[in-house]
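Renewal narrative, Specific Aim 1. Our central claim is that a sequence can be written position by position from structural information alone. The example that follows is taken directly from our test logs and has not been curated for this report. It begins with the structure tokens describing the chain, in the order in which they were read.
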């Protein structure tokens, strides 16, 4: 698996986390499934691993024990999240509230449509 792709997923999730307070379930899991072609359970475990401290430690451990966490991938995604969250927070503070709300709703609707269509 291409580590640069995983960093880009983490970066995008970090930007959206900084903008909207979202990340794992809304951004990382679908990206790992549709872009990195991971099975859903592995994507969930890997997402939790990337958000490990302290958010998903116990959940990530359960997925790890079940064989559904790619630790190396989780660490690369975490690297992108680290820088992306800072960038997203900077962008969010530069946007008017109404623009941020509209952008957030577009992101949510897009993910919902993609997940529904499968």
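The sequence written for that structure reads:
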């Amino acid at each position: 698996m291409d580590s640069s792709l995983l960093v880009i997923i983490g970066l995008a999730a970090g930007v959206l986390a900084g903008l909207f307070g979202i990340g794992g379930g809304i951004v990382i899991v679908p990206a790992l499934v549709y872009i990195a072609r991971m099975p859903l359970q592995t994507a969930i475990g890997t997402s939790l691993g990337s958000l490990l401290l302290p958010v998903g430690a116990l959940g990530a451990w359960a997925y790890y024990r079940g064989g559904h966490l790619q630790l190396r991938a989780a660490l690369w995604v975490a690297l992108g999240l680290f820088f992306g969250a800072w960038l997203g927070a900077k962008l969010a503070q530069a946007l008017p509230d109404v623009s941020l709300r509209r952008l957030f709703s577009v992101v949510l609707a897009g993910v919902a449509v993609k997940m529904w269509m499968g």
